[in-house]
Design brief:
This protein is mainly α and 105 residues long. Helices cover 89% and strands 0% of the residues. The longest helix has 37 residues. The two termini are 36 Å apart. The relative contact order is 0.11.
Length: 105
């Protein structure tokens, strides 16, 4: 009885391992990767003009502050935060690559 269980479990594990190694990319991983790539494309398309407008607004706030320190500081903060946010959005491609590499294992 124990011998049959051991043989059955060995055969079962061999079947599962062959299925796991034969597949190049699981369907779920491919679907998730394609979906995240599409979302990344949309986010970049939307954020590029928004970042340009925010940086332009920050530059104009600094330019037309007429010596008001509060507006100068606000303009600098706007420019810095916009550049940081846009850099993070552009680094999403690196994050997606890391996730797909980990999923392929």
């Amino acid at each position: 009885m124990i011998k049959k269980i051991v043989i059955f479990s060995f055969v079962f594990m061999m079947l599962l391992s062959s299925v796991a190694f034969c597949a190049s990319d699981p369907k779920l991983v491919t679907t998730i990767n394609n979906g995240l790539t599409k979302i990344k494309g949309w986010i970049v398309k939307i954020s590029t003009p928004a970042a340009a407008v925010a940086i332009g607004t920050g530059v104009l706030m600094k330019k037309f502050s007429f010596g008001d320190e509060e507006r100068i500081v606000t303009g600098k903060k706007l420019i810095k935060s916009t550049l940081f946010s846009y850099a993070f959005i552009l680094s999403v491609d690196l994050i997606l690559t890391a996730i797909s590499t980990l999923a392929k294992g």
